[in-house]
Specification:
Keywords (chains A, B): DNA-binding, Transcription, Transcription regulation
Strand content of chain A: 5-15%
GO molecular function, one term (chains A, B): DNA binding
Radius of gyration of chain A: 27 Å
CATH superfamily of the largest domain in chain A: Response regulator
Helix content of chain A: 40-55%
Number of helices of chain A: 12
Oligomer: homodimer
Shape of chain A: elongated
InterPro entries (chains A, B): HTH_LacI, LacI/GalR-like_sensor, Lambda_DNA-bd_dom_sf, Peripla_BP_I
Protein name (chains A, B): LacI family DNA-binding transcriptional regulator
Organism (chains A, B): Sphingomonas aurea
Chain lengths: 352, 352
DNA sequence: ACGCATATTGAATGCGAATGCAAATGTCAC
DNA sequence: GTGACATTTGCATTCGCATTCAATATGCGT
């Protein structure tokens, strides 16, 4: 209290004093004093439904502009318990599909006046340490495109922080999520490959703990089984170019080398294509067809033109954001999974 | 005042009430009560150099663990004027070199217990609106890998917020920055191309407002001029694959088509290579040499193997973080530019 | 002109933690 | 046992804003 007692800058008017390097930012009290009203009035001016007389509002706004006043987000958050911050977990930013997701998420959240607290997971990063930070910062919600184990999910739930998973699943717990229906996509691709006469399939899968990777692998194998094709060789990669390339080298060693390689990601498909062409001396798609999944940008480059399924990133991120905001408003909303089907990208890497 | 007057939950002990979906987080008062000490004592326990008796500390820590107490970052920030937040501006996340930079920055900052407030700029995004948010959130500093105009830089300086620019320049203002010495890199590339006998050069530059782009263009032209080569055709792209591809189409129309194309970024080089191969029917590097700059991952893929200069991203981001932290500690530090030279990447896209 | 409903306003309080200051306690020398 | 001094501790205040509550002002009907 005793704001009126501050005299240090009383005479300077608009020229704020600069102690050392930092300007003391104007507070609502400063604005109030200049406008000749109370601090409450200033607060009400900046609140959405504040009860304020038009004349007063004008005075306040004038003073606020003069002082360059902006409500302090920290103080605001502390008292309203709303930070307008959303934590975004994302893994392997260097894996080409995620940057697009992150960019879209960021855009969508920013459009709704929400800031992104980024947690980019590196291989070594201890998620629990990061979650610690999340608690401390009182984020309003979390969007995770990174893998969280059941215990972590449980912790988040215990803290009462809304979360939406992006292309991930969370074990037993029913957790809100958006999801690209990989099964439908892979079925589409397999059907087309079958229709074109391919019979000797191989799959380049992802790590076992990748939900999307596994769904794609299983859907592919299931569809092939339906068509009477069994014992399809599977190699696991880690979604990297190198792993895709190595995978085909492995597969080529088999008794009956494949004539169709289904990769569960575009980057691995690109690696596979290069592996076929440069390591095995095969022509793609003449000798062997390679298909991918995601629809990331490099997959469209002329040298590859990967036949693939494009995830509807924009719609998916929009859904994730929408679901999260809904649950921030009303935490009692039930979990829900929104599924999206991708679009077939013809490409040139498969003989169809 | 009158903290002792609180009786609402006096009898509940450790069992926190759960209003609806959110658990009321334990505060330092809760911990204090349970440990039988004052709130100040709790605070001192969690402060680095807090004066606290070992016995007391133990009691407090026990209570804190029991309640799952974590100091509230908001309240902490409000009073210490330190948010441990750094705003990171980054543009065109989809442009393949930035994700790597962002991932590294994030890692380095996280390692130092600082959180990243991400501002991913889209073409349309109004930087001034984002800066507005930056003010409101009291970030401790800014790292910008996005273009800021002089006025924006001036605003940041006026607010007394330390900033470090990443591969950017800021007009008149002397602003701390880290920088990859593009000039040295381009000279290296040009020298090698010259030594290999190339004489008909062309440059695929970036937009005029790109500092790195311009430095690379100018350095290239300057070196060529030193070697007596003038009137080198220049086409501008926007760092995208498509623009690189289109650029070579344009250049090929010239009277004397080039035998060496210097692209100021790897992605454009990739586009250029594909343009040469698929649009013009030229062989790279037999018919024409293409070199890039950056050292981004796809540039290493077998189909391209771009001859290039790799930016020392890790060292550069480390320097950016270090410079920023230094200036957060001591805002009076003078501006400084740290320059890094990239390493030559042989590749296969140039006949050397 | 008077009573009452409605619209504005300001004083006071609290969000959760850090910290200056003074009080309390402990330690040691003599 | 006493005083000087170092170590711990708690009280009270503060950060900047939102919000409750009571007070004041305004408008209306009659």
């Amino acid at each position: 209290m005793a704001k009126s007692g501050k005299k240090s800058d009383a005479g300077k008017g608009a020229a704020a004093p600069r102690p050392f390097g930092g300007v003391r930012r104007a507070t609502s009290y400063d604005v109030a004093k200049l406008a000749g009203v109370s601090q409450s009035a200033v607060s009400r001016c900046f609140a959405p439904g504040g009860s304020i007389a038009p004349a007063t509002r004008e005075k306040v706004m004038k003073a606020a502009t003069e002082l360059g006043y902006r409500p302090n987000a920290l103080a605001q958050a502390l008292i309203t318990r709303r930070t307008n911050l959303v934590a975004v977990f994302i893994s392997r930013l260097t894996n080409l599909h995620y940057p697009e997701v992150l960019a879209e998420l960021s855009r969508q959240l920013t459009d709704r006046d929400i800031r992104v607290l980024l947690f980019a997971l590196t291989a070594e990063s201890e998620i629990d340490l990061l979650l610690e930070q999340v608690w401390r910062h009182d984020v309003d919600g979390i969007i995770s495109a990174a893998r969280l184990d059941d215990e972590q999910i449980a912790g988040i739930r215990r803290h009462g922080i809304p979360i939406v998973l992006y292309n991930r699943t969370a074990g037993e717990h029913l957790t809100p999520s958006v999801w690209c229906d990989s099964a439908a996509g892979e079925r589409d691709l397999v059907d087309r490959l079958l229709a074109a006469g391919h019979r000797r399939f191989a799959v380049v899968a992802g790590p076992q703990d990748s939900a999307v990777g596994e769904e794609r692998r299983l859907a592919t194998l299931a569809r092939l089984a339906e068509a009477g094709i069994h014992d399809v060789p599977v190699t696991r990669g880690d979604f990297s170019y190198a792993s895709g390339r190595e995978a085909v080298a492995t597969l080529a060693g088999a008794a009956t080398p494949p004539d169709a390689v289904v990769c569960v990601s575009d980057v691995m498909a690109i690696g596979a294509i290069d592996g076929c062409r440069f390591d095995l001396g095969l022509k793609v798609p003449e000798d062997v067809s390679v298909v991918g999944f995601d629809g990331s940008e490099p997959a469209g480059w002329m040298s590859y033109q990967v036949t693939s399924i494009r995830q509807p990133v924009r719609r998916m991120t929009a859904a994730a954001v929408e679901m999260l905001l809904e649950r921030i408003e009303d935490p009692t909303l039930p979990a829900e999974r929104r599924s999206f089907v991708g679009a077939f990208v013809p490409g040139q890497s498969a003989r169809l």
